[in-house]
Design a protein that fits this description.
With about 100 residues, this protein is α+β, with helices and mostly antiparallel strands. It has a single domain, classed as Translation Initiation Factor IF3, CATH 3.30.110. It has 2 helices and 4 strands, in the order ββααββ. It has a 4-stranded mixed sheet. It is elongated and about 55 Å long.
């Protein structure tokens, strides 16, 4: 499955099949959340949250690709990501784009 964040595929003609998306709400365990809170006192990257968001993006993309495959898509173009805080220590991540089939 070709995934692009542009709205065309160089050298290819395609038909749009529709919007596809994948979403996940991810959280870290209490121990990691506590350590993240401690890290804010001294500064620097909070690797526990970085890992959490990377994992969440991977899950969201997988779900988006699964939805595109169910439509018979060859690619997803114009991919975008979004995220929002759901509660302390938990974030929603969404991946969405347009599923397309080559003609």
């Amino acid at each position: 499955m070709l995934l692009l964040n542009i709205d065309y595929i160089p050298g290819k003609q395609f038909e749009a099949l529709g919007l596809v998306k994948g979403t996940v709400v991810q959280s870290k365990n209490f121990g990691k959340d506590f350590m993240a809170g401690m890290k804010t006192l001294v500064g620097g990257e909070i690797t526990g949250y970085t890992e959490m968001l990377n994992e969440a993006r991977q899950i969201a993309v997988k779900r988006m690709v699964d939805e595109a495959e169910s439509l018979g898509a060859d690619a997803v173009v114009n991919i975008r990501y979004g995220s929002s805080s759901v509660m302390q220590g938990a974030a929603e991540v969404i991946a969405y784009g347009t599923a397309v089939r080559y003609v």
